[in-house]
Amino acid sequence: MTGAQECESVTLDLLKKKMTEFAKERDWQQFHSPRNLLLALVGEVGELSEIFQWKGEVPKGLPDWTEEEKVHLGEELSDVLLYLVQLSDICGIDLGKAALRKVQLNALKYPVSNERSQASINGSHSQAGRF
Ligand SMILES: Nc1ccn([C@H]2C[C@H](O)[C@@H](COP(=O)(O)OP(=O)(O)OP(=O)(O)O)O2)c(=O)n1
After folding, report:
1. Which of 33, 75, 108, 128 has the fewest CB atoms inside 10 Å of its own CB, making it the most exposed?
2. If you measure from the C-alpha of residue 82 to the centroid of ligand 1, how many angstroms do you get, rounded to a whole number?
């Protein structure tokens, strides 16, 4: 399989193709049912959670984490993404399209309020009491 360093831009479609190839080469498609992929995804979310467990709140950018810890974090985030991509694929969902549509729906559901717009203009980053 092609190494990550060879890919300038990583797309969901590329990841989907890589994972299809990965499963096919090992004859693992028989195990990749929607339910199994969902359970695998949830398991990886658990592993991702373990990394943050008991650490308390951590600052953005993780300035105090070692390189090794960050590499581990990248691996667990990737496992979640790769199972999500496979789950979407096996369910016949175009994840990229679905996510873009959801972004639009989110914007409609949570319109930018006048108060928020005004806060941005004034340089304040208040969430207008939402968070
Ligand atoms: N049947 C499988 C098994 C693995 N993978 C892929 C997707 C994930 O990216 C990764 C998961 O592999 P592991 O189950 O070995 O999980 P970890 O890499 O997290 O290892 P560990 O649980 O030992 O930390 O491999 C897959 O697509 N299908």
Report:
1. 108
2. 9
Please tell me the distance between residue 27's alpha carbon and the centre of ligand 1 in angstroms.
15
Determine the atom of ligand 1 nearest the C-alpha atom of 83.
7
Closest C-alpha among 81, 110, 89, 115 to residue 32 = 89
Cβ proximity of 34 and 90 under 8 Å: yes
pLDDT for residue 114:
72
- Best CATH choice for the domain 10-93 from the list 1.10.287.130, 1.10.357.10, 3.30.70.3340, 1.10.287.1080: 1.10.287.1080
pLDDT, tens digit, 9 for 90 and up, residues 24-38: 999 999 999 999 999
ipTM, two decimals: 0.97
Whether the CB-CB separation of 51 and 73 falls below 8 Å is answered with yes
